[in-house]
TrEMBL record:
Keywords: Kinase, Transferase. Transmembrane segments: none annotated. The keyword Kinase applies. One of its GO terms (molecular function) is kinase activity. The keyword Transferase applies. SUPFAM superfamilies: Actin-like ATPase domain (SSF53067), Winged helix' DNA-binding domain (SSF46785). InterPro entries: ATPase_NBD, ROK, ROK_cs, WH-like_DNA-bd_sf, WH_DNA-bd_sf. This is Putative NBD/HSP70 family sugar kinase. It comes from the Bacteria.
Amino acid sequence: MANVSTLRFGAQTDEVTSLLRIVNMVRLGEAVTRPEIGRVTGLGRGVVAQRVDRAVEMGFLEDAEYAPSSGGRAPRTLRFRAEQGRIVVCALGGLHVHVGVTDLDGEILNEAHRAWDIARGPEETLDAATAMVDDLLAAGDGSPVWAIVVGLPGPVDFDTGRPVAPPIMPGWNGYDVRTAFEQRYDAPVWVDNDVNLLAAGERARRRDEGVDLIYCKVGTGIGAGLVSRGRLHRGANGAAGDMGHVRVPGATQICRCGKTGCLEAVAGGWALVRDAHAAIEGGATGALAESVASGNDLTPEDIARSAERGDPLAISLVRAGARQVGEAVAALVNMFNPSVIVIGGAIASAGELFLAEIRHRVYEVSLPLATRDLVIKTSENDTREPVRGGVDLALEQLFEVSLPRWFSEGRPTVAAVHGLSA
């Protein structure tokens, strides 16, 4: 891509503003011919031609096929050159690593997944994750990496890219995840809580709605991602939505964070596994008990699957957990008033059994006005959800937040995105 050094953005002129807008309109498909751009922007034909020529010169746009004629000469469409760069998403979970590589339209080109215990620490985990990324990039066409998004299963200070006292990530507190990736790949990096990536993926399905949404993940742990008017709501320090560590009245279980009675310690996947073992030791029978007796390690997914298949112990565990999660979600509904709640995660894969209990508690406890138009549904259960959400976050940061800072470079750089360019 050409480096057009004559475009400077210290003082954003009308020319620059319209140029950025045209590139984004074509990228999003809002206007893809010169006449359409003129009608949407109100710019004259000559000005549109000049701006488009500049965008083509810089390598952002190119001419494509002809559009259908409306009576005169058929106009030539424009296309955004999504192939010019790559976006990398690295979604770290408590027990897995999922990485994906996409083009600038978010089309997934390659991905990989492996089991991994994040408690092995940051150095070993990031070595494993970057090795997976390297393999995917080596199998590609050599296009440069434009952005990287990393999801972590714990609280993250979004401004610094560092985890903050994550309960299930020993050794990660304050670790500079962003710099580790930026130095290796020479590309801007954004680090966020893993549930925010899932919330961003759901937002992408409703991009035109300006949606108010809660994504509640009930897996090994419990967390929520909040979207307000189409924007991820992280709070002042990135802790918004950390519902897993809300206190459950009367609960005495010790949480992995060290506190007593957290929702996660009562209804999280690891808590249900703990309670399943205790019940089996107390004489409970059924599929779960038989699995444990056979020497298998019990997982939250096992409990969800067994509940779907009618195992009485699994059903009782899932329903009890759902009731507690429903209470917490109801509190969020009263405070946040979303239009959509999406329930995902390993335990939520129990389906309608889990969802029905949450719906019951939310509608019973929440205010009538807050639930009047509320939709509560399970996630799409797409294994690519973290990658799709990470791409949506990357595109937002590249083209909606930081574009004026790096546009003149022809591609995003670490210095330009962070506003450090001369």
